[in-house]
Design brief:
Layout lengths: L9 H12 L1 H5 L8 H49 L7 H21 L4 H15 L5 E3 L8 E3 L21 E3 L4 E3 L5 E7 L4 E3 L5 E11 L2 E12 L5 E3 L9 E4 L5 E2 L11
């Protein structure tokens, strides 16, 4: 399993207190034969210290990848300036190659206009999966909760996932790989630009990580990474105004603590 802290961190204490407040809710979570409180406690004790240890690395990784187009263009401009001072820039082969590079860079700009929170979430998943070691985090389906789960946990006793209005909302296994969905012992990932505000289609009980970022011009900057164990009570539920209106659940940062500070106090933009 993931290496443990010898001393409990303030972030873990905060999350465990939230988990204790959710014990009654977890005891009623389907299927009730599963001890979700114990499983969620195990997850928090493993993952929260791990996330605290890797928060700085995660921030550097996400910022590095998201800012790579800007850095690449800056370096290409410098290469062009250096080449212009040499005889190499006058060769037909160089001119043809450089024209191809410039065209590709312009085409890439078109793709980058569609890069948003989903891309950032996938980068977070990729980094945490790579660093998770024996805890062996895996990614769930694009529309499934939670985003990450531990492949070393046993989910074999969960029922098969089924669709339908009359189905009970609860934990299940899905697909050929028997991925655990709707389980409260994984990790949900969200991203927010500029301000902390998250909307989703259901109130998910469990550990949540939120990365907050700003983008000024071409520069992407993570200004905080926060965590909390949410229970249904901490969501704001918008009741549908008509049968065709989708239920919306939302939450803000009032119950979250920072992974980037020793005392857990959130950073300001």
């Amino acid at each position: 399993m993931v290496e443990r802290h010898a001393v409990k961190c303030s972030q873990l204490n905060h999350v465990l207190a939230q988990l204790a407040a959710a014990k009654s809710e977890l005891s009623q979570y389907p299927p009730q034969e599963v001890d979700w409180y114990s499983r969620a406690t195990e997850t928090c004790k493993e993952l929260v210290p791990f996330l605290v240890d890797h928060a700085l690395g995660l921030r550097e990784y996400v910022d590095g990848v998201m800012n790579s187009p800007f850095v690449l263009r800056r370096d290409l401009s410098r290469i062009s300036e250096i080449a212009a001072k040499s005889s190499m820039s006058r060769s037909k082969k160089f001119k043809t190659l450089w024209k191809s590079v410039e065209t590709s860079a312009e085409f890439e700009k078109l793709l980058l206009t569609h890069v948003g929170g989903t891309t950032v979430s996938k980068l977070i998943e990729k980094y945490l999966i790579a660093e998770s070691g024996n805890y062996a985090l895996l990614s769930n389906g694009a529309s499934d909760y939670p985003d990450l789960y531990s492949s070393v946990k046993d989910y074999s006793k969960l029922p098969a996932f089924r669709r339908g209005k009359n189905q009970v909302y609860g934990a299940a296994v899905k697909g050929k790989k028997q991925r655990p969905v709707r389980v409260p012992d994984g990790l949900e990932i969200k991203t927010c630009s500029k301000a902390f505000a998250v909307d989703c289609h259901h109130a998910h009980t469990g550990l949540h990580l939120v990365l907050l970022f700003n983008k000024t011009g071409s520069e992407f900057k993570t200004f905080d990474i926060q965590i909390a164990f949410l229970r249904k009570e901490l969501y704001r539920i918008t009741n549908p105004s008509s049968p065709t209106t989708t239920l919306k659940a939302s939450f803000n940062g009032s119950h979250f603590v920072s992974l980037l500070s020793e005392d857990g106090k959130p950073s300001k933009t």
